[in-house]
TrEMBL record:
Gene Ontology cellular-component annotations: extracellular matrix; extracellular space
Domain NTR positions: 19-145
Protein name as it appears in the record: Tissue inhibitor of matrix metalloproteinase
Alphabetical UniProt keywords: Disulfide bond, Hydrolase, Metalloenzyme inhibitor, Metalloprotease inhibitor, Protease inhibitor, Secreted, Signal
Signal peptide: 1-20
Enzyme's top EC category: hydrolase
Organism: Pinctada imbricata (Atlantic pearl-oyster)
Major site of localization recorded for this protein: secreted
Alphabetical list of PANTHER family matching this protein: METALLOPROTEASE INHIBITOR (PTHR11844), TISSUE INHIBITOR OF METALLOPROTEINASE (PTHR11844:SF33)
Length: 226
């Protein structure tokens, strides 16, 4: 009994670390909900900090200009220049952004006001954020925060129904596990209805997208890595 418990604890610790380092795919809504801040801003400057006496980048500091209040989707921030820090390397989940380009950036706010972001956050050039996602950022993702999402893979998906037993979870049938911007991420929100039950709200692009994805899956017999 005690051994079984220990094994479960160790496994869950390993899983936690795995998902922290490899950054399990998550929906923009999930990223929005767990973030301390979400903003749209233009990257003005990138400043690199190096480990002492090496040419290895330890940290990147971005100066990001947020031009209006409406571009702060979440968090206690003011417009103007904000400073966002990320780790210096991909391996430690650092992100790279181009100067002069506009991005959506989510992240963590430390108690002293420092803003951090990682590759696990919602970081995407604004030009790649589609209209459905833009609406999500403005209204819908926040509305859906009481809801959870759960991923299913392969045969698991056929065993589970669309609506979870406890009603607070949307089932994310991974059409393409390796694509961080898959059909669900692009065209769905997970929202509660008037009875408080959570379900996907997708736009009409979603069905086509899934059909397209699954056709490609069956043709090659394996999942396509994007
Ligand atoms: C924002 O940062 C840029 C680049 O560092 C600087 O030129 C500009 O004056 C700053 N703007 C404000 C309002 O501080
Ligand atoms: C749906 O979620 C919103 C946001 O939390 C909440 O205000 C509302 O009461 C919920 N609706 C129902 C019917 O539970």
């Amino acid at each position: 009994m005690a051994l079984a418990l220990l094994v479960v604890m160790v496994i869950s610790m390993v899983m936690k670390q795995l998902s922290a380092s490899s950054c399990a795919p998550s929906h923009p809504q999930e990223k929005f909900c767990r973030a301390d801040f979400v903003l749209r801003g233009r990257v003005l400057e990138e400043e690199l900090t190096y480990f002492p006496e090496t040419d290895m980048v330890s940290e990147k500091t971005y100066t990001v200009s947020v031009s209006k209040k409406g571009h702060i989707f979440k968090g206690e921030l003011t417009c103007g220049n904000v400073t966002i820090i990320t780790s210096g390397s991909d391996i430690t989940s650092g992100v790279t952004m181009e100067t002069e380009k506009e991005y959506v950036i989510s992240g963590i706010a430390l108690p002293d006001g420092t803003l951090l972001t990682t590759s696990c956050e919602f970081v995407m050039p604004y030009s790649m954020v589609n209209s459905h996602q833009r609406r999500g950022l403005r209204f819908k993702y926040n509305q859906g925060c009481p809801c959870k999402m759960r991923r299913c893979y392969g045969d698991d998906c056929t065993m589970m129904s669309d609506w979870s037993i406890d009603g607070d979870t949307c089932l994310w049938r991974h059409t393409n596990v390796f694509n961080p911007n898959d059909c669900y991420s692009k065209y769905t929100y997970c929202l509660n209805n008037t009875l408080g039950v959570c379900g996907w709200k997708s736009n009409r692009m979603f069905e086509d997208c899934v059909l397209d994805d699954s056709t490609r899956l069956t043709m090659t017999g394996e999942e396509i890595r994007v």
